[in-house]
Amino acid sequence: MKRLFFSAILVSVLCFGADLAPTPPMGWNSWNKFGDKIDDKTVREIADAIVSSGMKDAGYVYVNIDDTWEGTRDAQGNIQANSKFPDMKALADYVHSKGLKIGIYSSPGPKTCADYEGSYQHEAQDAKTWAAWGIDYLKYDWCSADKVYQASEMQAVYKKMGDALQATGRPIVFSLCQYGLQNVWQWGASAGGNLWRTTGDIQDSWKSMSTIGFDKQSGHEQYAGPNHWNDPDMLEIGNGGMTAPEYRTHLSLWAMLAAPLLAGNDVRSMTDETKQILTNKDVIAIDQDPLGRQGFRVSKDAGAEIWVKPLENGDLAVALFNRTDRMTNVTAYWEIVGIKGKHKVRDLWLHADMGSFRDAYSAEVPAHGVTLLRVAR
Ligand code: GLA
């Protein structure tokens, strides 16, 4: 048994790179809220706020700088940060001193999506620079790469950076961002990827979030697991475009999908309500369950959807989603969920044990809302 366990670990290390993301990565990314208005000072303040708000304790550890940090290359071709980031090494040291990790962003093309310097023809050199700065996570965004590569070269292009990161000897999580092109879920892990975007960019709206989360992830669940995750894009919770029930649905759905949880809000000034949503440890435990199974839909009926995610201890996460515009009574029948008899139920948003239920569980679910359950085996 023990030998089987260690060979399973060995196989997963050989196939999926080092054990860098045994559960979906959690942290924060600058893009959704700040776009190009991100600089050294803001990143430091966000790192402080991640610690003081309890986000770090809830599991959010990566502080990721997205596009627009890039400057010009020096005479030797080394990438330098622009004037918004005077000293990347010092910034990385600061973030590390808080017990957090730091991420950065680039493109395999000559230019990033926001038209800053990309890594084209400097892949190994850039990987070394980031490792020397102390970077722990790279988001690598296709952007202008289609100007210099054929789509058929995409896998090799990503593997080139995957290999370059590995060659640095520093553990760096590798996040592929190419919007789900070329069925990335089928080859992302073999390119060294720990996660890969499955769709285009999320927006802070119910339509965008629900379409990505409910309608565009099904069928990819077989490709997710420890160290290699489907990424439905970063969180919009707290950015103002959705209601609290919608943001609860956002976190619940991402947890059911075993998605990376990268907060995208201004953590320095978030409301208590936003904090309560983002730091719900019961929900985060579903996302971070060590079994690493991505959940799936088991029924869909006029806007009511039931999703199930098997958990390591044999429990099931069961989500009762209401996609309609009015309060709806939603029932999860145990038969559809895949269990029989009487089971203890905990409501993960009420933080309450609801008792034992035979055959089914019903709840009044608000418009665009969710009742998320942990059902004991
Ligand atoms: C693309 C990505 C986004 C973000 C921007 C930055 O659109 O999908 O997540 O990184 O580029 O320019």
Describe this structure in words.
The chain has helices at 2-16, 31-34, 40-52, 55-58, 88-97, 123-133, 154-167, 206-215, 244-256, 272-278, 281-287, 334-337; strands spanning 26-29, 62-64, 70-73, 79-81, 101-106, 137-141, 173-177, 195-197, 229-231, 261-263, 296-301, 304-310, 316-322, 328-333, 342-347, 352-358, 360-365, 370-375. The protein has 377 residues and is of the alpha/beta class. A hairpin with a 5-residue loop joins strand 12 (304-310) and strand 13 (316-322). The radius of gyration is 21 Å and the shape is globular. The two termini are 24 Å apart. The model is unreliable at 9-16 (pLDDT under 50). Alpha-D-galactopyranose binds at residues 31, 66-67, 112-114, 141, 177, 201.
List the helices and strands and how they pair.
Blueprint: H1 2-16, E1 26-29, H2 31-34, H3 40-52, H4 55-58, E2 62-64, E3 70-73, E4 79-81, H5 88-97, E5 101-106, H6 123-133, E6 137-141, H7 154-167, E7 173-177, E8 195-197, H8 206-215, E9 229-231, H9 244-256, E10 261-263, H10 272-278, H11 281-287, E11 296-301, E12 304-310, E13 316-322, E14 328-333, H12 334-337, E15 342-347, E16 352-358, E17 360-365, E18 370-375
Parallel strand pairs: 1-2, 1-10, 2-5, 5-6, 6-7, 7-8, 8-9
Antiparallel strand pairs: 3-4, 11-12, 12-13, 13-18, 14-17, 15-16, 15-18
The protein binds alpha-D-galactopyranose.
The site of alpha-D-galactopyranose has 9 residues, from loops.
